[in-house]
Amino acid sequence: MSSIAETSYANNTELLDQSQARALLAGVAISSFSALLLELALTRLFSVVLFYHFAFLAISIALLGLGSGGVFAHIGKNWLARFGTRNILTGLCATNAAAVPLVLTVVLRVPVSLDLSRVNFLRLTAIYLASAIPFFLTGLEFSVLFARESGVISLLYGADLLGGALACLGVVPLLNWLGGPNTVLFAAFMAATAGAVWAARLTLRRLALLLAAVILLTIAVNWSGRLFDIVYAKGLLRDKSWVEFARWNAISRVEVDRQGGAKSVVIDADASTYIMNADPAQWQGTDWQKNLMSAPPALANVLRPHGDFAIIGPGGGVDVLRAIANGSPSVTGIEINPIIANTVMRGRYAEYSHHLYERPDVHIHVTDGRSFVRNATQNFDVVQMTLVDTWASTAAGAFALSENSLYTVEAFREYFEHLKPDGMVAITRWEFRQPREALRVVSVAMEALHQLGIQNPTANFIIVSEGALDEDGIPVVVLAKKSAFTTVEEEAVRAHLLAQPKLQVLYLPSAPKDNPFSALIASNDPYAFAEQYAYNVKPVNDNAPFFFFTLKLDQLLHDKNLGRGIDWKVNLGVVVLGMVLIISFLAVLSFLVLPLTMRAGGQDTRPVRLLYFIAIGLGYILVEIAFIQRFVLFLGHPTYALTVVVFLMLLSSGAGSLASCSWLNQTRQMWVPSTLIAGVLLVYVLVLPWILNALVGLPLPAKFLVSAALLVPLGFAMGMPFPSGLRALAGQSVEWAWAMNAGSSVLGSVLAMVIAIQFGLNAALACGAAAYMLASLLSKTLSA
After folding, report:
1. N or C, which terminus of the chain has less Cβ within 10 Å?
2. Which of 220, 213, 217, 172 is CA-nearest to residue 196?
3. Helix 153-178 vs helix 721-728: crossing angle, to nearest 10
4. Distance CA 121, CA 464 (A)
5. In the predicted model, what is the mean pLDDT of the chain?
6. What is the DSSP secondary structure assignment for residue 254, as one 8-state letter?
7. Are 107 and 181 spatial neighbours (Cβ–Cβ below 8 Å)?
8. In whole angstroms, what is the distance from residue 677 CA to residue 717 CA?
């Protein structure tokens, strides 16, 4: 930078007195709160408006915007030097607050469907770039501030992380109270508030407060969705005329729709479950009995009519009603969404459902199904899951789906271990002309039985479908036991099928058919079978719990009819990963890398030194995403995983940033925290799954303490490398370092999922360790 610009820049750097310091730190914290809250709220919104695969897109968008803001600050240093720091910050916050409602309008009104057409790609790109605008403005704010106040960078970075940590605590109650669109607007309100805090002149402060008041008024007017609500969902225009009730929370958006004479619960404008409107004591001879007993899941009631049932994901009560009506003395329902269990079934629609969930023989628990079963002290005759696949993202984003962890080998072992001696699991999945979902259930169950010491479980399965597999979308039930099915049980199945002619046997121990199910069971080796089968049906485990992704690489590259199966919305995730990776790469190239090339001759730009910040950004996001997924099972709820993991990491990283100011005064010491982080992560790769499994039975408060013990020391160390690196730059390329850190995180957020799907969560964590080791080696370049 020229000497004139340097002088101007220095003149505009305000000397911090105590009140100014408090204002800057408070403004950073509030602005960071606003940005992370917006990111998390968009995650929830994308899951409804688009598809759950796009939910983690918000992470990439946020990081791109923050990074490109840093690039603009770097390129426009001379122009920005004309303005005072607090004036710039106030103006950017006000612009940010005004931009958020416009971004919300774009997200709600631009339809994106499942096809891979050029138009659809452009629409997705439009949402991507529009949504990045508020984060661009935040990145510009922080880059200007960090560059001008580099002497207190640790304090500012600590305030940044503290604000983000508080957003993690606030997002769940805000989503539960305000809903998705209004939570986005609340992020705009916080941005305007940050502008008021930063304002150096009374006039500017009043204008910022006026803008904040207008946004609050907008939230109040929009309380019932009058201004901002879902217009397009999954590429289709929503017809609101049939919607009777709608509510958001951190898990999903739930609405109750009229469908003829029935009512159904619709989750994230996609998956649905009917609310039962029948009295179990008077259902003999009714259409309810005829319809429910002609479905494949009814086989569990036929074989165990008076058994104790544990039903995971009971929804509107289909399986609950069937079990009670057939004579079950005790039905335990495990529903993850409190809106469905409490607000709908035990509240607004309790009378419509004949108070099904309030009966003394029905016990409803609002928690994650996997966590409940593994901690249960009782055993059951039947553990049942019927089409549990809401395809709805949690607020954690990424592919951290609660449903995925229900279909792993470890999960099935827990189901089998919580059965009575002659109990069974009853899993119903959709199936297709070429089987892959129910077939994978068999594969997973077979591996679980092998691990329980059952060497040849050929007599341990019964599989029945609703009609022949001559079209896609046929429900298939897989019954599996630790002991062999008896002749009496097989005869009971045959008798029921005679009364229900649309049901067809796909596998009986005494009469295997010529189909993939019989071939898999006869092989007694699910891994070898999956290698030669057209789809990926090998068993999945907790390290890579991606049950629903059944495509093989060859199909992605060469199958022209790929999009015709109804499971395309699930397998689309693999394609979406590639699409988002392309968009992210092009965006990073356009907004981050090319400007560096154009200014390569600048005296303050040394690309080799920026590699350090790329490694730090990549390492942090890889570790964060891997930990979120890991702790879902331990904490028992994806929302807890988001809140606890991200809150603890950001808070402890903020403390580490503050400590680095006094602990790491010399550049030659910077390799220490990065090396320590890499070492601890490699240890965690080996021992973390064992620790979490061993302590999973602890009460929830104790689990929070264990999480803190595991994450806080590591997060403390992870907060040191970035601010230490910025200080080492001595005011040179601070904005550019910020941009490179954010840009690597953009790609890392996608790569984390690519690595996890292909190689598992342990591999993602190991890659995070490798990134920090690289940062340790690169730290020497900062002193060169």
Report:
1. C
2. 213
3. 140
4. 40
5. 84
6. E
7. no
8. 7
Give the Cα separation of 345 and 394 in Å (integer).
21
What phi and psi, each to the nearest 5 degrees, are found at residue 290? Answer: -60, -45
What does the H/E/C string look like for 703-771?
HHHHHHHHHHHHHHHHCCHHHHHHHHCCCCCHHHHHHHHHHHHHHHHHHHHHHHHHHCHHHHHHHHHHH
CA separation for the pair 219, 209 (Å, rounded): 15
Integer Cα distance of 292 and 189 in angstroms: 49
Distance CA 361, CA 325 (A): 11
Structure confidence at residue 738 (pLDDT): 73
- Binning pLDDT at 50, 70 and 90, where does residue 572 land? low
pLDDT tens digit sequence for 482-521 = 999 999 999 999 999 999 989 999 999 999 999 999 999 9
Pairing of strands 461-466, 419-431: unpaired
Nearest to 614 by CA among 721, 719, 728, 717: 721
Q: How far apart are CA 436 and CA 533, in angstroms?
A: 9
Count of Cβ atoms closer than 10 Å to residue 235 Cβ: 16
Report the alpha-carbon distance of residue 485 to residue 588 in Å, rounded: 58
For 259, how many CA atoms within 13 A lie in the half-sphere containing its CB? 13
**Strand pairing class (309-312; 380-386):** parallel
The residue among 306, 358, 355 whose CA lies nearest residue 330 is 306
Q: What is the CA radius of gyration of the chain?
A: 28
Residue type, 584: S
Spatial distance between the Cα atoms of 32 and 29, rounded to a whole number of angstroms: 5
Q: pTM for the full model?
A: 0.84
Neighbours of 152 (CB within 10 A): 17
Q: What is the pLDDT of residue 61?
A: 79
Distance of CA 298 to the CA centre of its chain: 33
Tokens 């008896």 locate to: 486
CA end-to-end span of the chain, whole Å?
20
Q: Given the DSSP bridges, would you call strands 461-466 and 331-335 parallel, antiparallel or unpaired? A: unpaired
| Six-digit token string for 325 | 């009506």
pLDDT digit string, tens, across residues 637-686: 666 787 788 889 988 988 888 787 766 555 567 788 899 999 999 999 99
Q: Which amino acid is at 255?
A: E
Of 205, 185, 153, 161, the C-alpha closest to 32 is: 161
Q: Tokens representing 509?
A: 């121990």
Here the tokens at position 767 are 């890659």
C-alpha to C-alpha distance for 69 and 84, rounded to whole angstroms:
18
3-state class (DSSP) for residue 698: coil
